[in-house]
Amino acid sequence: MLDVFRSKLAELYRSPRPLKILDVGGWHAPCRQATHLVDIMPYETMNRDAAYGEGSLQIRPEHYHRVDLCGPDPLPFGDKEFDFVICRQTLEDLRDPIRVCREMLRVGRAGYIECPSRLRESTKGVQRPDWCGFYHHRWFVTVTGDSITFQFKPHNLHFSRQFYFRRWPWQRMRERYANTYLLWAGSFRFEERIVIEYREVQVDLRAFKRAHRHVPAFRFRWRRET
Fold first, then answer.
1. What is the per-residue pLDDT for 27?
2. What is the DSSP letter of 105?
3. CATH 3.40.50, domain 2-215, yes or no
């Protein structure tokens, strides 16, 4: 899917007509093809060094909107205003990703979503030796077909070998297992999977580890991706 997205970016870059492209939450790593960007952080601190895609960065101050994506107001755009909407490595951070998905569907005709995989968020040693995944992420994110599901990331994940995987310093997670992707056109489905009862949480964590214990997610750092 990542290669498909790269091809899509190249297609957008070479479009014979001007396109309106929205980057949702792209302050940390903006897309060069994007014409507009929304984020809670200020324009002046945007991480230009991490920009990706072809050409030069197009976003100008007047098209950078500093907003709380989960705030009470809708995004400051009209219905179907954008040809394409990009949301990479953002939804897993937010307190209300369902609201943001709804707004992306409202303002966009098509788009791309990328989040860390549940496998990555369930692995110790990704960011620090003693916790799983990334410390500030709120959600497990799963994509199945044209549907994206959010499930809260519980604290007990970090404390039992029954629940987590381990990445050692000499290992690297393969790209196809590290992230989950959704390239959509017209519409996509989204929902929160609600798991409340503690025993149900434990059963769910064990079941996920059991189902993925033989997945070849890691490789030695000094070997090429396969």
1. 98
2. H
3. yes
Strand-strand pairing, 139-144 and 147-152: antiparallel
The token pair that represents 150 in the structure block: 């959010």
Q: Give φ, ψ of 121 to 5 degrees.
A: -70, -15
Q: Mapping DSSP to helix (H, G, I), strand (E, B) and coil, where does residue 200 land?
A: helix
Which one, of 144, 146, 148, lies nearest residue 185 by Cα? 146
- Cα atoms in the 13 Å half-sphere on the side-chain side of 85: 29
pLDDT at 144: 97
CB 188 within 8 A of CB 147: yes
Contact status, residue 22 vs residue 37, Cβ threshold 8 Å = yes
| Angle, alpha carbons 22-28-33 (nearest 5°) | 35
Q: What are phi and psi of 171, to 5 degrees?
A: -110, 155
Please list the alpha-helical segments (H only) found in 58-131: 97-107, 118-121
The one-letter code for the residue type at 205 is: L
Query: Measured between alpha carbons, how far is 113 from 107 in angstroms, rounded to an integer?
Result: 15
CB neighbourhood size of 150 (10 A): 23
What is the Rg, in whole angstroms, of the alpha carbon atoms belonging to the chain?
18
Model confidence, pTM: 0.93
- d(CA 68, CA 41) in angstroms, rounded, equals 9
Which residue bears the tokens 């937010």?
94
Angle, vertex CA 57, rays to CA 55 and CA 58, nearest 5: 105
Question: What distance in Å separates the CA atoms of residue 30 and residue 48, rounded to the nearest whole number?
Answer: 7
Which structure tokens are listed for 93? 């951070």
Candidates 148, 116, 141, 111; CA nearest to 36 is: 111
Ranges of the chain with pLDDT below 70? 1, 222-226
